């Protein structure tokens, strides 16, 4: 840094760098005090923290650091350490060499990979695979708060990487009345994850089915693409994947796909599922499994969309779905959607 | 291929060789066009169609239910001969059965090409869904084809044996194999065949009416999301229009095959009987359709009314007025109105052809308009007209059907060797 304390700029108060550093130091909690509150060994914690700062300053390498502390950490944290992904291993630009990473006693692999893995359905019998959660997922959309900006539609497209012609979420805009007394309602429409889903009823190969957590799954490896469910859905929520791509708009548009229903299918390729299959909103199951909200809920500018457990009476969504403002679309169809709207 | 014998003459195939060449040329063109279009279908996938997620079912589905209907109708005509033993109908028994088999094969081709994943066409036999009409249908179709083949076998077996007896070498082995080695031509063997023919027919009737064609109607009718289909009368109309198209087809085939293949003259009484059946079915079909329309309109359900508006006044209304009303009802009705016309083969071929073409529009008007209306206000309206690829593949699959039929008609004893009556 070439800046000295004398370099002042017009209009900027002349506060010395040393002063600023002192302020930070003042605010910094005392490591001993902090660590005393946790069960783990305080001395080990402080030593590790100090060495971590050295790694940051480039005085020692990441490899040296991990080699030094691996044993101690394994002893101190036991199982918990052995089974966590090594946070220093991050696909692409990791701070330790692969050799060292492999020699460590904690699991090797990036946070990302481990998260995806644990979300995948492993085999048939996996009781605890995707969608086996105790929650019953439901969404409540407050129509008073929806401004019709279609952010949810865009967020969904980028999260789920849906091709042209496939849009798991749309915002239906309805105008009522005659000029000048016109009102306009915006009704966002994801898949309703119906409790009595006609789409499930008609599928000849049981490729689409209800999971324990209430989400209606589509098994892209089984769907034959007959589009009967597309015909049967009273909400127009299903879309056929005709195999189109955004290649003209975006380079390598098909390189990334979303691990829908917890299955990572790699890059989008001709003749490979989900091309030729039916698709629809999954309540972002892959995100729910990671403890995140669906992309549309997270992005909603008006905070109109809420996601939660309908079976937990204390949850926000359960309470909203119970309110007198709540209604479902096409209630007389008997489909009993798990998406509620507030009028 | 002419095999002379003292008692029976067996010489199937075209009488006129030039006609044969011309016919195969036409069929060849259809199949070639189809192959070319299928190439696009396979390489470009479903994007080669004009289908969308709003109108997911189009020409292929319409042709599929059309051919299922033709098949069920032709089969039911055959049962008049082999189950109900209506006098004089025996002559067309095998024609009807064979046409029913070919139609069913074509129908399944249409289902196949319509699948987003054609490679998974056998999945419905591995995984099922009890509540899915389509799952049931797929099994019913297989059972039904089984019944049809069984029936055709029992109906034709004795003549296959007779032909095998009079030929030698490869041909003999071919016909003997088709007769499954049962080569007796005794009275007992014949009555055995007839007994089983009747039994198979009795099983086949409910299968055809309730499962195969009624079921195909149910497939649409259960769709609560589409009020236009969601009616109890719908499957019934399905069966009646199937009978109509099937009978018209058999009538046409009877004349053409008798004239062009057997070189015989048409039996005016039989022709008249078939013609009267066609009249009856036209009347019932038109009446039920009128009732259905009336209920729909009188219910003042906006969805229903708008769908009917699309049918009657929309951009495709010509198919309703010209084809559905004109070709399948009015025009044939005129041709069928005079007794002397009903006994004139050429006029009846025209009437049959008119119905067979007209019912195609009936099927299109079942499938497409119900999808034009969005399922919810605020969703976009549908638009659909088949692409060249869809037309081309359809033409090709029809060509394949014609080819299979012609080959069969040129080799099999579809006309009873002992003449039309019960032997
Ligand atoms: S909204 Fe449609 S696709 Fe979603 S569960 Fe209901 S019927 Fe199925
Ligand atoms: S398109 Fe796929 S999921 Fe839908 S009914 Fe057909 S096989 Fe089932």
Q: How would you explain this protein's 3D organization?
A:
The complex is a heterodimer of chains A (343) and B (423). Chain A is built from 13 helices and 10 strands. Chain A has 343 residues and is an alpha+beta fold. Chain A has 2 domains: 18-113, no CATH class; 137-342, Alpha-Beta Plaits (2-Layer Sandwich). The model of chain A is unreliable at 119-126 (pLDDT under 50). Helix content of chain B is 71%, strand content 0%. Chain B has 14 helices and no strands. Chain B has helices at 17-44, 59-82, 93-114, 133-166, 169-178, 187-221, 233-262, 268-298, 302-313, 317-336, 339-342, 345-367, 369-372, 388-411. Chain B is globular and about 70 Å long. Chain B starts with 16 loop residues before the first helix and ends in a 12-residue tail after the last helix. Bound molecules: iron/sulfur cluster (2 copies). One iron/sulfur cluster is lined by residues 202-203, 205, 207-208, 218, 223-229, 278 of chain A.
What is the name of the CATH architecture of the largest domain in chain A?
A: 2-Layer Sandwich
Biggest sheet of chain A, strands in spatial order? 8-1-10-9
* Oligomeric grouping of the chains: heterodimer
Low-confidence parts of chain A: 119-126
SSE order and pairing:
The complex is a heterodimer of chains A (343) and B (423).
Chain A: H1 17-27, H2 31-36, H3 42-57, H4 62-77, H5 79-83, H6 98-103, H7 111-119, E1 137-142, H8 151-160, E2 170-176, E3 183-189, H9 198-202, E4 208-210, E5 216-218, H10 228-232, E6 239-240, E7 278-279, H11 285-288, H12 295-299, E8 305-309, H13 316-322, E9 326-327, E10 339-342
Parallel strand pairs in A: 1-10
Antiparallel strand pairs in A: 1-8, 2-3, 4-5, 6-7, 9-10
Chain B: H1 17-44, H2 59-82, H3 93-114, H4 133-166, H5 169-178, H6 187-221, H7 233-262, H8 268-298, H9 302-313, H10 317-336, H11 339-342, H12 345-367, H13 369-372, H14 388-411
The structure holds iron/sulfur cluster (SF4) (2 copies).
């Amino acid at each position: 840094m070439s800046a000295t304390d004398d370099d002042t700029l017009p209009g900027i108060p002349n506060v010395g760098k040393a002063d600023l550093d002192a302020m930070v130091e003042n605010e910094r909690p005392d490591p001993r005090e902090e660590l005393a509150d946790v069960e783990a060994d305080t001395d080990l914690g402080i030593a590790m923290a100090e060495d971590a700062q050295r790694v940051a300053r480039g005085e020692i390498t990441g490899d040296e650091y991990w080699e030094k502390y691996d044993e101690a950490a394994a002893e101190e944290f036991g199982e918990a350490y052995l089974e966590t992904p090594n946070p220093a291993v991050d696909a692409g630009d990791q701070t330790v060499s692969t050799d060292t990473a492999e020699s460590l006693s904690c699991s090797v692999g990036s946070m990302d990979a481990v998260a995806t893995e644990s979300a995948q359905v492993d085999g048939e019998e996996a009781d605890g695979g995707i969608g086996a959660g105790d929650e019953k997922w439901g969404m409540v959309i407050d129509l008073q708060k929806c401004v019709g900006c279609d952010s949810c539609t865009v967020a969904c497209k980028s999260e789920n990487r849906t091709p042209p012609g496939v849009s798991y979420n749309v915002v239906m805009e309805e105008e009522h009345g005659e000029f000048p007394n016109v009102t306009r309602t915006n009704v966002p429409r994801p898949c309703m994850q119906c409790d009595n889903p006609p789409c499930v009823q008609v599928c000849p190969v049981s490729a689409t089915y209800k999971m324990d957590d209430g989400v209606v799954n589509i098994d892209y490896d089984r769907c034959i693409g007959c589009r009967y469910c597309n015909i049967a859905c009273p909400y127009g929520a299903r879309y056929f994947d005709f195999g189109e791509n955004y290649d003209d708009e975006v380079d390598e548009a098909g390189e990334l796909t979303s691990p829908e229903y917890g299955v990572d299918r790699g890059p989008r390729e001709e003749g490979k599922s989900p091309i030729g299959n039916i698709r629809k909103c999954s309540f972002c199951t892959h995100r729910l499994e990671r403890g995140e909200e669906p992309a549309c809920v997270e992005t909603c500018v008006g905070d109109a969309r809420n996601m939660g457990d309908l079976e937990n009476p204390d949850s926000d969504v359960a309470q909203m779905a119970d309110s007198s403002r709540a209604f479902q679309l096409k209630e007389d169809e008997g489909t009993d959607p798990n998406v509620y709207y507030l009028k | 291929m002419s095999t002379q014998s003292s008692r029976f003459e067996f010489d199937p195939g075209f009488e006129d060789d030039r006609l044969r060449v011309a016919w195969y040329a036409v069929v060849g063109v259809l199949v070639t066009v189809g192959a070319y279009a299928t190439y696009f279908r396979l390489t470009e996938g479903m994007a080669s169609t004009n289908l969308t997620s709003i109108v997911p079912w189009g020409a292929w589905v319409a042709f599929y239910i059309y051919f299922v209907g033709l098949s069920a109708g032709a089969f039911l005509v055959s049962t008049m001969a082999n189950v109900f033993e209506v006098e004089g109908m025996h002559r067309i028994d095998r024609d009807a059965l064979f046409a029913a088999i070919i139609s069913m094969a074509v129908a399944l081709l249409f289902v196949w090409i319509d699948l987003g994943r054609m490679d998974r066409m056998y999945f419905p036999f591995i995984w099922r869904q009890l509540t899915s009409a389509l799952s049931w249908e797929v099994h019913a179709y297989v059972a039904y084809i089984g019944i049809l083949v069984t029936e055709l076998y029992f109906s034709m077996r004795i003549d296959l044996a007779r032909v095998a007896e009079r030929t030698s070498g490869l041909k003999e082995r071919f016909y003997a194999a088709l007769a499954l080695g049962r080569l007796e031509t005794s009275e007992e063997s014949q009555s055995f065949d007839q007994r089983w023919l009747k039994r198979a027919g009795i099983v086949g009737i409910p299968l055809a009416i309730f499962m195969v064609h009624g079921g195909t109607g149910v497939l649409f009718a259960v769709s609560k999301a589409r009020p236009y289909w969601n009616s109890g009368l719908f499957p019934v109309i399905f069966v009646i229009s199937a009978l109509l198209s099937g009978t018209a087809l058999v009538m046409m085939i009877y004349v053409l095959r008798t004239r062009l293949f057997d070189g015989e003259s048409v039996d005016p009484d039989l022709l008249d009987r078939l013609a009267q059946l066609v009249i009856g079915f036209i009347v019932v079909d038109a009446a039920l359709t009128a009732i259905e329309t009336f209920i729909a309109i009188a219910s003042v359900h906006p969805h229903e009314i708008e769908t009917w508006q699309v049918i009657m006044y929309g951009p495709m209304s010509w198919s309703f007025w010209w084809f559905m009303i004109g070709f399948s009802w009015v025009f044939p009705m005129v041709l069928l109105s005079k007794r002397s016309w009903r006994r004139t083969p050429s006029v009846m071929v025209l009437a049959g052809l008119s119905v067979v073409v007209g019912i195609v529009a009936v099927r299109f008007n079942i499938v497409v308009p119900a999808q034009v209306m969005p399922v919810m206000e605020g969703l976009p309206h549908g638009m659909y007209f088949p692409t060249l690829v869809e037309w081309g593949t359809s033409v090709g699959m029809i060509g394949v059907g014609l080819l299979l039929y012609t080959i069969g008609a040129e080799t099999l004893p579809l006309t009873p060797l002992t003449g039309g009556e019960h032997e």
